[in-house]
Amino acid sequence: MTRPPTAAQRRVIDTADPVSGRLRGTQAQLAALVRHGLAFRHPRPPHDCFLTPAGHRVREAAPEPAPGPPKTGARAEGAEGADSGVFAARVGGEEDAAAGGPARLREVRSAWEGLLELRRMTNPDGGTDRPCGWERTHLVRAAALALEAAGHRPAGPGGTDGYRVRATPQPEAVAVHGPDDATLRACAATLEKAGWQVGEHTEPRTRARYLLASPRRT
Question: Cα–Cα distance between 176 and 85 in angstroms, integer?
Answer without folding.
Answer: 26
